[in-house]
Amino acid sequence: MRKLSTGTEFDRGLLGQHCWLELANGDRVDLPVDRWTEGCDLGDTVLLDACDGPTLDIGCGPGRLTAALARRGVVALGVDSSPTAVRLTQERGAVALRRDVFQPLPGEGRWHHALLADGNIGIGGDPVELLSRLHELITFDGDVLVELEAPGQGLRREAVRLLPGRSGPWFGWAWVGADAIAEVAMRAGFRVDWTTSRGHRWFARLERA
């Protein structure tokens, strides 16, 4: 999917190595590698507790959420462009598919929930386009559960690349603050049902408008 990169830098991050996004202006955004590779925390339970039916975990990474849902008896499918991510998810005993979210996916229109955790609302650099795609994947009464930036961050789009290692290609990424999600959601045919926080992490549930 239009995520980080399927190159070796992202794969190393999935395996626990420190990595970050470099912005065109030279700024650096560290990636939460420890959270990707460890067990679920209190923030993750916000997402997990909201899933009571078939769930797509978009950009599943090494599969902590996909596997946690499976342990709860919830049908869950992890989707990621990285073969390493898919393999790690499967090693946790969960089901995962190597696929771009904009490509055809199993069960389109029949998923109850779609997860965008760990900043995956930024996939492709266009949150409206991404949410519009998820609109096609969920049921008429389904929802999107999304992790956001803290209030005050607004909507930000940047060209980024993944480091360390060899300089990879630049690609689009986005960040959406809790204060900006209502506008983004509306443009994609959703409305915000609730927002909440756990520690420094912010979340929202989006339902069809």
UniProtKB/TrEMBL annotation:
The keyword Transferase applies. Residues 56-99 form the Methyltransferase domain. Keywords: Methyltransferase, Transferase. The keyword Nucleus does not apply. Its EC number is 2.1.-.-. One of its GO terms (molecular function) is methyltransferase activity. InterPro entries: Methyltransf_25, SAM-dependent_MTases_sf. It holds the Pfam family Methyltransf_25. GO terms for biological process: methylation. CDD domains: AdoMet_MTases. This is Class I SAM-dependent methyltransferase. It comes from Amycolatopsis rhabdoformis.
